[in-house]
Amino acid sequence: MYGLGIDSGSTTTKGVLVGEGGIVETFITPTSASPRDSIYEVYKRFCSDSVGFTVTTGYGRELLTESDKKVTEITCHAKGAAFLNPHIRAVIDIGGQDCKAISLDKDLNVSDFVMNDKCAAGTGRFVEVMMRTLGENIDGLDSFVSGRTPVNISSMCTVFAESEIVSLLAKGTPKGDIALGIIHSICRRTAFFAQKVHIEGDVFFSGGLARFAVFRDTLEKYLEHRVVTDSMSQYAGAIGAGVIAYKKAVAAI
Questions:
Q1: Residue 93: which H helix or E strand, with range?
Q2: Which of 123, 230, 125 is nearest to 185 (CA)?
Q3: Closest Cα partner for 8 from 243, 248, 238?
Q4: Which residues of 60-97 are buried (b: 16+ CB within 10 A; e: fewer)?
Q5: What does DSSP assign to residue 150?
Q6: Which of 35, 65, 83, 205 has the fewest beta carbons under 10 Å from its own?
Q7: Contact at 8 Å (CB) between 5 and 55?
C-alpha cells in the first residue's frame, strides 16, 4: 500500500510515492499555463489500486478532485524536510513565487512560520528573470559565479532590479559579478525575513534554488546557522504530503 503526495507549485508540480520503505518513486514536471493539467499529469502517472491515499499541497492543491486530503504547504514542507533530515530545527523554502521560513520544535512539528507570497522579490522566478536579463541559463549558476566578486544590487523589485542590471551591463560590469550580487541580495533579504521566527540549530534549505551550492553557502553566511540541503530538497513539499498520505493509507487498512 502506498501514499501519494503531490505538490502543485507555481513553477513545477512534483509527485512522490511513499511506501513502507520510504520514497518509492518521484516525478517532476513544469507547471503549465493550466495548473490543473499539470497536477492531473502527475496524478495519472502514479494512480493505481496500490495507492491507498492521496494528499495534495501547494498553490493548486484544490484542483485535484480525486485528492483525499488537502494540506497546507507549511505543514508538508516541514514534514518533508524533517523526513529527509531529522536533525534540523528550521526550514527555509524559496519557491517559484514565495518564500517560507518555518521553525520546528523538538518533535519536528511546526512551532512558528512566516510566508511572503505578495512579492516576487527573492523567489526562484526573480532569479530566472534576472538570469535571462544577463543572457545566461540558470542551470549553470554555480560555475557562472565561481570566483566572482559580488556587486551591490540595491533594488529587490523585479522591475527596478532588471533596470539596474541593464545599467550595470552598460558600464561593463562582469555578468558573473552581477549574478553573484543578486544571490547575495536574495540571501541577505531571506535571512532578515527568517529572523521573524526563532531559529535554533540546523536549517534545511528547500526549493529549486537549493540545488545550487552558492545559494546554500551564501544563505548560511547571512543566517549564521548551518544550512543543509538534500538531493531531494526540491521535493520536500511533495515528500511531506506523501508521508501524510502513507500514514493515512496504513491507518485505513
A1: strand 90-94
A2: 123
A3: 238
A4: bbebbeebbeebebbbbbbbbbbbbbeebbbbbbbbbb
A5: P
A6: 65
A7: yes
Q: Dump pLDDT digits (tens) for 148-165.
A: 999 988 776 767 788 888
Q: Which of 54, 23, 53, 52 is nearest to 40 (CA)?
A: 54
**How far is the C-alpha of 86 from the C-alpha of 107, rounded, in Å?**
9
What are 16's strand-pairing partners? 5, 26
Instruction: Give the 3-state secondary structure of residue 114.
Output: strand
User: Which strand ranges, in their side-by-side order, compose the sheet holding 203-206?
Assistant: 110-116, 99-104, 90-94, 203-206, 227-228
Q: Cβ-count burial of 57 within 10 angstroms (0-12 exposed, 13-18 middle, 19+ buried)?
A: buried
What's the CA gap between 211 and 10, in Å, rounded? 18
pLDDT digits (tens, 9 = 90+) for 169-215: 999 999 999 999 999 988 988 898 898 998 889 999 998 889 999 99
Grid cell of 114 as nine digits = 512566516
188, 154 in Cβ contact below 8 A?
A: no
